[in-house]
Fold:
Amino acid sequence: MSLAERDVALRELMDDPSCDPDRLRATLRRFETINRLVSRWRPVYRSRIRPFLATRDGPVRVLDLGCGGGDVISQLSRWAQSDGFEVEWVGVDPDPRALEVALSRPAPPRTTFLCADAADLLATGERFDLVLSNHVVHHLTPAELGEFVEQSRDLSRGIVLHSDIERGRLAYALYAIGVTPFAAGTFLRTDGLRSIRRSYLQDELADVLGTPWQVEKSARFRLLAVAPGSAGG
Structure:
């Protein structure tokens, strides 16, 4: 198996509308643990989100596109609350199965979860100070990605942050070993490895996104695409 190029033919099991619902729920619930280990939002919070929040008069509105089970919002909310920021959090996902898991958890303060996508929010006139996503980029075709990042900028008055995996043999090998204790009864191992194979290298993602996006390495095996919002201040 080569990781020299993205394997765009692969599809993750959890993206199948007819996948096993119990395994899907278990996968979404266990993402809270997996994302703490591999998504590395703490460096992004320190370098990007906290400094941005400090420049805004509260309450600041933050949107998580494709929020899944809501674990990233929960994590960011704790850090922002500890730092004394007043933030309204909105998590949206077009998959009602994901929202079911998000709504089954105790919600962080000032948090709303909705079954919607970026187009739905734009149609209702919603706007946010910061828009982010986690592990959405690698799921999308080039056409879908172009629409997604454009809509994310249209929703933001401030900045947009899309975080994803960087493809690589070491990332693949380490994940294959490290996820094993958490994988029973879930799609975590199969889908995680497929995600890595579908993911971009830094230069590849920068070429696909183009101006005004900047793509940086936020941590080892992690990419962060950053752009200003286009919704106005």
